[in-house]
Specification:
The complex is a heterodimer. Chain A is mainly β. Helices cover 0% and strands 46% of the residues of chain A. By secondary structure, chain B is mainly beta. Chain B is globular and about 40 Å long. The chains are: A mainly beta, B mainly beta.
């Protein structure tokens, strides 16, 4: 079956530009997560969607970051006025709404801000 | 605040050796713990998921144990192969559907 997909796989942008990263979760998964993996750092949580509840945005590093999830499926992470420190791999994961199920990760989007 | 530590940060072993990767976490009140594998430039592949009520899980040559009270988990890899070379990440879920808290990983190299 299809796993979590993300696009683009790589994105190079200039400082100050806006970027949009897309995540297609596994069909039927109600929970969706965005994480960031910076060079030499561990994965850090950014934002989390669960069903129709308000998203948990507690991990977003600044107000330049936002995300939405349309129709309970596809999610878009937007970074406005990108900075060089935003360069990282952005990973998306999804899981069913059942409490004990594992998270499944997409291949990630590698963002490079010049 | 939950913190996850993985030791060692890097490990190099000859092919065929059995090895143990360690993971510790500061808050023992976890829902589950998940071990992942990450190949260079790739996403994460889930290896094993241990619920808080379980002591271990096995998949092929992999065995993960959990000692929740002491805040520790180990990933045992038997008869290591060069194809096992990757970064192994440990992550805990504190409750329900909340996000995972990750360690920084152990980079494993298995030398033929």
């Amino acid at each position: 079956g299809a796993g979590v997909s993300q696009s683009p796989s790589n994105k190079v942008t200039e400082k100050g530009k806006d970027v949009e990263l897309r995540c297609d979760p596994i069909s039927g998964h109600t929970a969706l997560y965005w994480y960031r993996q910076s060079l030499g750092q561990g994965l850090e949580f950014l934002i989390y969607f669960q069903g129709n509840s308000a998203p948990d945005k507690s991990g977003l590093p600044s107000d330049r970051f936002s995300a939405e999830r349309t129709g309970g499926s596809v999610s878009t992470l937007t970074i406005q006025r990108t900075q060089q420190e935003d360069s990282a791999v952005y990973l998306c994961a999804s899981k069913t709404g059942l409490l004990y199920n594992e998270q499944f990760f997409g291949p990630g989007t590698r963002l490079t801000v010049l | 605040k939950q913190e996850v530590t993985q030791i060692p940060a890097a490990l190099s072993v000859p092919e065929g050796e059995n090895l143990v990767l360690n993971c510790s976490f500061t808050d023992s009140a976890i829902y589950n713990l998940q071990w992942f594998r990450q190949d260079p430039g790739k996403g994460l592949t889930s290896l094993l998921l241990i619920q808080s009520s379980q002591r271990e899980q096995t998949s092929g040559r992999l065995n993960a144990s959990l000692d929740k009270s002491s805040g520790r988990s180990t990933l045992y890899i038997a008869a290591s192969q060069p194809g096992d070379s990757a970064t192994y990440l440990c992550a805990v879920c504190n409750s329900g559907n909340t996000p995972l808290v990750f360690g920084k990983g152990t980079r494993l190299s298995v030398i033929a």
